[in-house]
Structure formats: structure tokens, C-alpha cells
Design a protein that fits this description.
This protein has 628 residues and is α/β, with parallel strands linked by helices. It folds into 2 domains: 4-125 and 133-180, no CATH class; 193-378 and 450-618, Glycosidases (TIM Barrel, Alpha-Beta Barrel). The protein is 35% helix and 11% strand. α10 (329-343) packs parallel to α13 (437-464) and α13 runs parallel beside α15. It is globular, with a radius of gyration of 26 Å.
Amino acid sequence: MASNSSNNQFLHHQHIQEQVSTPGGGGGTRRSRPLEEKERTKLRERHRRAITARILAGKLGVVLPDGTTFPSRSQQNSRPLGGTSAAATSSSTHLVSQQTPSASLRGISPGCRTSVDYNSCRLKGVFMPTPSPYDLSTSTQSQNSAMMGDGGEQTESHPLIGGSLDTVNDKQVVDISPKLAERDFGGTPYVPVYVMLPLGVVNMKCELADPDGLLKQLRVLKSANVDGVKVDCWWGIVEAHAPMEYNWNGYKRLFQMVHEHKLKLQVVMSFHECGCNVGDDVCIPLPHWIAEIGRSNPDIFFTDREGRCNPECLSWGIDKERVLRGRTALEVYFDYMRSFRVEFDEFFEDGLISMVEVGLGPCGELRYPSCPVKHGWRYPGIGEFQCYDQYLLKNLRKTAEARGHPFWARGPENAGTYNTQPHETGFFCDGGDYDGHYGRFFLNWYSRVLVEHGDQVLSFAKLAFEGTQIAAKLSGIHWWYKTASHAAELTAGFYNPSNRDGYAAIAVMLKKHAAALNFSCSKLRMLDQQVNFADALADPDGLLWQVLNAAWDVDIPIASENALPCHDRVAYNKILDNAKPLNNPDGRHFWSFTYLRLSPLLMERQNFMEFERFVKRMHGEAVLDRQV
């Protein structure tokens, strides 16, 4: 529940807005953003209708003749609701329902530390989910408020959530326990649920690490009615020792076990290194023969301004350069995918393999490795541009010369270092060089290389896996999202400042290849980590809905996964809310969801019971147990 000071602040802000929007009142001017106000009004009205419906259904308490509402004593004592109560006859208690002014502004906050008006310059997003009581809990209210920044308006908790009383202008406001308002997903669309297998399920010898243990776990997963499992097919394991010498033995045994349990498979063509990112518990480097080439020619890897190479994945600059024992990087990727398709033809024909996700960069994601922990990056640093290998610099030089400005064939010189903040740089600060002539040229080129890489690799993937759904994974770089420049996104290759939609071009490219978009539920990072998101001006929800809208605008399937492990109901409810948005006018929902990941912790009795419940709700089944 918000404090009295913040409520008074909102009421004062609302009074000023009413003066501004009323002709002849106060300032005597019209509101400068009528479309935004119209959308706010529509979403507030939806919210009121939802609450009213629950009140009329008797789920949120007793309605007094003057229209106010509060929980009856019969509710609080777990007895059947009656038409009246002692509290209902008391005329001395006046209960009011507080508006939720910022609820319709998810992903948009005026609390930005920037001279640029964040709200007025946003050009992105169409659908924002209607706020609802089940979306919040008392355990996360303070975190949700922190996410919105520390200035101006804050996200107010709705008075019908929680279980406490507070006052606004000396009037009581009721807060009801969230368990009464948990959303019912019975009858909602069926969203398939997959479980990601452990990173080291197949060892470096391409053998199953623990076949007996895996067999037991698959049986348990089947009992929970999951649709299937997902697994990384590591380039560094399969083609480890020599070019075009593939060993799929461990994966053959794994796929056979999955098939015997009548589960489906999603596979990842993992062309990146494992072991250098959050959550990695094994080390799987790139193939040995690639490492040998890299020792004599380190420019096959992404390189930062200081000349440090990152062997996590190959530079996109060699996509068409014959520097890999006579093959280009694109040819290497295609040969690997074609070998997989031929080797597992029977599983494709039987429909066991439902999707192939193609690795396009670090962590398998379509992005530059702009935030490498091995080079000292720590959250919430903006990262660094990764375009200083000789091949990408050659590409940049050709582009600058074609533009008629050969002196632009360089990276920004005032963009800071890995752990710099935007306002500390001349490039990313408000009014910085990122929005100048050179800055726009460079960022256009940098992001175009990213889109072209995805386009070329997916062209080969579509050829190799004809008739099978392919997908690409996109990362959620949500820190500094509420600044004008979106610095962390820019260094990662997403040209997404506040006056430009950086994800639309990626969505169009995916649509060209009929590819699905896999985007992680980045909001879970907030639930699982004690991180000060306000200081980083982060906005996981805002980024999530921008990306989802970009994908839905071109009608491509959206898959998703949790960013970090989760076992509690609050986290599961958040996933469900994202997977099946409430009141989406087009009835949009996720195409599939992958839980990260299979582990002994998930198999613990209480955790697995919660997981089973989550699977049922993702499948659209009614769940009778409403206790939290």
C-alpha cells in the first residue's frame, strides 16, 4: 500500500493534470498527448469493469448503498458470504476506492533522469496488459514500485489487493488478500510447456552423462503432463576435433529415450561457448580446431576497442570469409545443421522434433557480446561496442566510403567502457553523439550487421529444416531502458533509442523466414534478484511488451522461457500473465514456454507440486486449489 505522502503527491499531480486538460482552467491549455490520455482512460475503464464484475460476483466483499466496498467479516472468518454484516451497518466507517493512475502506464515512467520527456518520445508498443489484482502480491509490491524509477509518479498498489487498511486524505482504504483475486486460467488457450535439460546432459565425449538418472526424471516429467523437453546440441561437442567430423552418439540415445516416453523435442543448434555466463554450470568451449585457427587469427572472434577478443562465438564479420579451413562461417553452420537433419531424419518424420532454435550469437541469442563478465562487465554497465576485428572494420570502412564519409569508418571514441553509465559519456548522454549524424550512421550500420547475420543464418536453417518450425532467441537488455539513448541496448546491437523502434526490423526478418521468436521473461530477474532496478532505470515489463507487440504486429509465433530458475507461485503467476495477457483485443498468447531447467531442486516434492499446478494452468485447465 502506498504511503500517505505518495498518495498526496499523486492527488496533487492529478489536480494539475485536470487543470491542464480543462479549457479555461488553470493553465488554460489542452493536454499535449491526447492519444496517450485516451489509452489511459480505456485501460482504467477496463480495470474498473474487472473490479466491478468481481464485486458483483461476491468475490471482493460487501457493497454498501453508496457504492463503496470492503471485505465482510464472514469472508475474513472463512464463512459463507451473507447479504449484510455488522460492518455493513456502520455508518461511521467511510471506505473509498483509490484510483490507480500509473497502472495503465506499464513500461512507461516519467521518473527518468533525463532532460528528454520519456513519455512524449516513445513511439513503441500497442497493447499493454490490463492491470489486475492477481498480478501483484504483497511480497512484490515494493519491488514493483522500485522498478518504475524514483521520480514523479510511482506505481500505486490497488486498494483491493493485500490484506491491510491504509488512509488517503483521512479516509480508509481496504486491501484484500491476493489469494482471493488469483486469476483463473481454466478455459484459456493451451500453451505447450517444455523443460530444458541440464547443460551437461551429454558430456564432452558425446555420451549421456547419467542415463539412469535422466530416465527417472523423464518419467516424472511425463507424469506432470509436460509436452516435451528442450536440449542444446553443442557444436563444441559434436564437431569437436576436425572439420565436418560429427559425433551425434549421445544425442541419438537421448532422443530415443525421449521418444519412448512419448515426449516431444525442441533442439538448439548451439554455436556458442558454454561456461562464461550466469547459470552455466559446465564448460563447453568451441571446437578445438576453431580454437587453433583463433590462435593464429584472433580476428575470427568479436573484439572490443581495447583489442580484447571474446572466443564465446564467431564474429559476424567472417560470415562470408573463407577463413575456417576453406569454409565461411555460414557454410560451417549450414553443414552442421544439414548433418543433424540427416542423422535424425526419423525423428523429424515422426514429428518428435517440434522446433529447432538456431544459435545466432553469445548464449545462442541474436546480439553482440557487449557485456562479457570475463572482461570485467558488471550490471548495470552499458557494455561496449564489439566491432573491432579486422573483418567488421573492413565492412564499416566500405559502408562509410559508400556514404561519402570515409572518416566515419571508426567506432565511437566517447562511448565509455563496460561499466560506465550513460550520463558519464559524450555518446550516450542526453543530446549525445548517438543522435548526431555520425552516431545515427554508425548505429544503423551496427544494427544492420546484426539483422543481416540473422537473415543469412536463418536462410540456411530454413533450407536445412524445411517443414519444421525454426526459431531465434532474443535477449532482454532492460537496463537503461528508461533513458533516451537506451545505451545497453545500443551496444548489444538493438538500435532502440526512445524515438525509434529497434525490434520491428528484427521481427520483419523473422517473419521472412517464418521463424518464431524466443524471448525470455526478463521480469523474473526482478523477482529472483535483489537488484536496484531504479538506479539502472530498468524496465523489464516495458521492454517485454515492446518486443511482444513487434512480433505480434507481423504475426509470428512467440516462445518464451524464464530467465532464471523459479519455484514459487508468484513467479509462475507472472509467467502465466505474460503467456496469456488479460484483455488482449486479439486474443494473443505464447506459442510455447520452456522452463529452465531440469534439476534436483525442481524434483523436490513441494517445488514439483507447484510446477505441476503451473503446467495445468498453462494448458488451460481449471485448478481448484486457490491457496497461495
